[in-house]
Design a protein that fits this description.
There is one protein chain. The protein has 14 helices and 21 strands. By secondary structure, it is of the alpha/beta class. It has a five-stranded parallel beta sheet, covered by helices on one side. The N terminus and C terminus are likely disordered.
């Protein structure tokens, strides 16, 4: 009761009249949530609270602490344009430095007082009579807000494969996104299930510790060289003294990555060129023709995430590392049994199997108008208008939502475009005294027909399994055009697709 009262006092109970900012709840204190909060702060809006399930900010960069964790987007582009960092130590920053950057942003922009750490929102229910989102936390608190912004993204709930006997293993086991640093791998037989973006970063590191390492590969990945290097001190000083040079460097990175977009059209010259780069990289690092054949993809490049690494292939040629391509039949008390009948003993099993990427907002039960469940609405694949709004769910805005992920550039760029659009809606609510924003069904359906038509022209629908699409094959995660096209669309698209409710709430609701 007291915690509920404190929450109500914190967010304020006034209706959003003209000139008064709406009460806003932000789900998640990761890259997206912090971006939203900072932009609100810069606009002078203080009536927001960030709900974060962990004990601090950082999101995926707080969760993923596995050995070798780093970003596959260059540092100067994987940072906010309004909060540049001149002294990135490497071209591709590692997890501790990225987390420190995000924590620094939280401090710099005064976000700590708005943060409710160790507090997860489990349910959000729209009340059409009061035009409020009624939130329930994992502590049982009730919080009412005018605007709900999800910064939960696509990569926050670990995915575990459906394998017989998965609970029967008697050794240590954990997911890479929940790395158990108390487990000493020295001298252990370790099984790594999965070989995706996280696995290729930690496999080379743990191969140096384990007595033996089995890598279970479901399908091969396209891997290209990682152009990583430390930034010289002179360059960092130059970036600090001459911001125009730093901005030019950032723009150059963005432009070079943007030029990779044609790769995602099957049969394009860019795709052929990138395949040649990847195959040359493979041939240089693995001389054994049999092993090389097993790690050569049988689908077009770009069909699923293209990985970057300089040390993954060399780790596979070690005498104490085995690449296992036979399917897993079951897990037993002391190891893994593959479909060829071979028993592979293990002391530790590590799941590098990614996330529940197509179950957007999976940790939260969202109920909109007329009692409709967002998860049921998205049962056949998530959709959203501009990736940020869903009809029937008023004043709910998504960041890094459906069809806004990328395979070629920085999601930071996309998020800033989304936050800018959401800020326009919130500003309109404050200026005009609106109580609700709800996108029209026709606008949303027309937009998504266009998105899926563009998806059909990409390589993502080719014959591969990826986290870009649902089990039925619908691509729900990726934006099927350039980031420049998305930026332009978000900058030039107005709020005309939204129904607006201008009526004030009854006075009785003002101080409940």
């Amino acid at each position: 009761m007291l915690s509920d009262l404190r929450t109500r006092l914190q967010l304020g109970r006034q209706s959003p009249a003209a000139g008064a900012p709406p009460r806003i709840a932000i789900l998640g204190a990761g890259v997206a949530g912090l971006c939203m909060a900072i932009r609100l702060k810069l606009a002078g809006i203080e009536s927001f609270t960030i709900f974060e399930k962990s004990d601090g900010v950082g999101g995926t960069w707080r969760d993923n602490t596995y050995p070798g964790a780093s970003c596959d987007v260059p540092s100067h582009l994987y940072s906010y344009s309004f909060a540049p960092k001149s002294d990135w130590t490497r071209v591709f920053a590692e997890q501790p430095e990225i987390l420190a950057y995000l924590e620094g942003c939280a401090d710099r922009f005064g976000l700590r007082p708005h943060l409710r750490a160790r507090t997860a929102v489990t349910e959000a229910r729209w009340d059409d009579d009061t035009a409020e989102w009624q939130l329930t936390t994992d502590a049982g608190d009730r919080v009412d807000v005018d605007v709900l912004v999800s910064g939960l993204g696509q990569l926050n709930v670990p995915f575990y494969p459906d394998i017989d006997g998965i609970d029967s293993f008697e050794g240590m086991t954990f997911h890479s996104a929940r790395w158990n640093h108390d487990v000493d791998l020295t001298g252990k037989r370790v099984a790594v299930i999965g070989n995706g973006a996280s696995a290729i970063q930690f496999i080379p590191r743990i191969a140096e510790q384990a007595a033996h390492l089995d890598v279970y590969q479901r399908s091969a990945n396209w891997v290209v060289p990682k152009p990583d290097a430390a930034y010289p001190d002179k360059m960092k000083t130059l970036f600090a003294r001459w911001p125009v040079i730093r901005r030019a460097h950032r723009a150059q990175i963005w432009g070079l990555l943007e030029m990779r977009w044609p790769m995602f059209h099957d049969g394009s010259k860019k795709a052929h060129a990138m395949e040649k780069v990847a195959l040359t990289h493979l041939e240089k690092q693995i001389s054994d023709p049999a092993l090389r054949a097993r790690v050569t993809p049988d689908y077009p490049i770009g069909c699923k995430r293209v990985l970057i690494s300089n040390d993954y292939y060399p780790s596979l040629v070690r005498d104490d590392v085995a690449l296992i391509t036979s399917s897993i039949d079951r897990i037993v008390a002391d190891g893994v049994v593959t479909t060829d009948g071979v028993h592979h003993p293990a002391d530790v099993i590590i799941y590098g199997t990614g996330f529940q990427t197509t179950n957007f907002l999976a940790p939260v039960e969202i109920t909109g108008r007329d009692g409709q469940s967002l998860h049921e609405r998205w049962a056949k694949g998530a959709e959203a208008y501009l990736g940020v709004a869903v009809d029937g769910f008023p004043s709910l805005f998504l960041l890094y939502g459906p069809n806004t992920n990328l395979g070629h550039n920085s999601v930071m760029f996309m998020m800033e475009s989304q936050v800018g659009y959401v800020m326009r809606a919130i500003t309109a609510m404050q200026r005009d005294g609106l109580t609700a924003f709800d996108v029209r069904p026709q606008a949303m359906s027309e937009y998504n027909r266009g998105v899926q038509a563009a998806v059909h022209e990409t390589v993502w629908e080719a014959g591969c399994r990826s986290w870009y699409k649902t089990s039925s094959g619908k691509v729900t995660n990726n934006w099927p055009k350039t980031t420049a096209a998305y930026w332009y669309k978000m900058r030039t698209t107005g709020l005309g697709a939204f129904n607006r409710r201008a009526a004030r709430r009854p006075a009785a609701h003002a101080a409940r």
